[in-house]
Structures are given as C-alpha cells and as structure tokens.
Amino acid sequence: RGRAAAAAGVELASAALENEPSLLGVALGMLQNISLYPQAQAEIMRCRFMELIPKFLGGQKDDAIRLKSLSILHHLTGHAEHAALLIRHNVAILLCQELVSRPNNVRCRYKALSCMVNLSAIQPDAAHFTQPALLKCLQLLRQIPEIESLVDHFLYNVSTVARQKTLLEHYGMLPKLTPGGRLFASSGGGGGG
Question: Are 62 and 101 in contact (CB under 8 A)?
Fold first, then answer.
C-alpha cells in the first residue's frame, strides 16, 4: 500500500516537472519529501527527474530549485545500490559542475559535497574523483569553514585507494587527520536543509 502511494506521488510530481513550469518548486518539494522513504527511492530513480536533473543544477538556476534537487540526490546517494547506479550514470560529473558553478552559495555546495561524500564511500576509485579541475576546486572550498569537513570526508574516502591517495598527495590534497588517524572535526556549521 505504501509503495503504491509512493509510486503515485512520484508519478504526479514527475509529470509536473515538465508539464507545469509554475509548479516546478512544488513538484521538486514533493519528490524531496518522498525521497526520504527508501521504498520510494527506486521509483524516483526511474522517473523523469533523473533525466531532467541537469536542467535543475548550476549557478544560473534558482537556489531553491537547486537545493531541492540536490536534497533528492543526497537522499538517493545514501542508498548503496542507487549510489552505484548514479556513479555509472555520471551524476558525479553533474555534482562537480555544481561545485564550480557561479554564482554559488554554501548551502548548494554543502548539499553537492554531501552527495560526493556518499558516492565516494561506495566507489572511492571512481575516475571523476581525482580530476585536476575538481581537486583545484576542492582546494578553494576547503577554505570555507562550513564545508571544510565535508571536503576532508570526501578526500578521506577517495584516499582509501592507494592509486587515488598517490594522486591526492601529488596535488597536496590529502585529508586532514588527527595524530590518531581520525578526521579533524569541522570548525563550521552544517549546510542546513
């Protein structure tokens, strides 16, 4: 019963994504809420949102639209099976583009980095994760207190693969660890939402 209701909600929200531009925020908000339920995530992975996600991200898009879209992705990347599929479908590239897009804000970057942390926990050896452009971007983002710890969590995940760790070391991007080998705690706050 719950699965059928979730499927109906996803279908309704998905139809509104394309057919009702004035309801885009409402449709994404609906998908954002539905994506919290694991039994509904498979439906979202199959819906039109996944094809349209590139249209909802990037610095020129409305922040609220970007945040809702990134929140949906964050919920989906929290599930290992979905995260692996999203990596295969190059969502990491979209997230990297979101991180470097201008103008940008800390909340959008926080959400994008949260997704990257989830993806890198599932497949730390993904080639996208050691691209020079991404690493340069992360060097800059690491200076923002609110997201510094997310950058280090991402780098930590990626550095668990010897080949990746060598590349990170080459770029001076190893995660900041305590003498005991643990990640330093963030000095900043969360990204909210």
Answer: no
pLDDT at res. 20: 76
Say whether 183 sits in a helix, a strand or coil. Answer: strand
Q: Outline where 20-123 has alpha helix (H).
A: 24-34, 38-46, 49-56, 63-77, 80-88, 91-100, 106-122
pLDDT mean values, one per 10 residues, the chain (193 residues): 82 86 91 92 93 89 93 97 93 90 88 97 92 91 92 94 92 79 53 42
Under 8 Å between Cβ of 80 and 117: no
Is 0.90 surpassed by the pTM of this model? no
For residues 122 and 119, give the distance between their C-alpha atoms in angstroms, rounded to a whole number: 5
**Nearest Cα to Cα of residue 7 among 41, 50, 51:** 41
109, 75 contact by CB (below 8 A): no
pLDDT computed for residue 54 by the predictor:
92
Six token digits for residue 177: 């660890």
Residues in CB range of 115: below 8 A, 6 or more apart: 70, 73, 74, 77, 91, 95
Query: Tokens for 68?
Result: 């809702």
Residue 193 to residue 190: CA distance in whole angstroms: 9
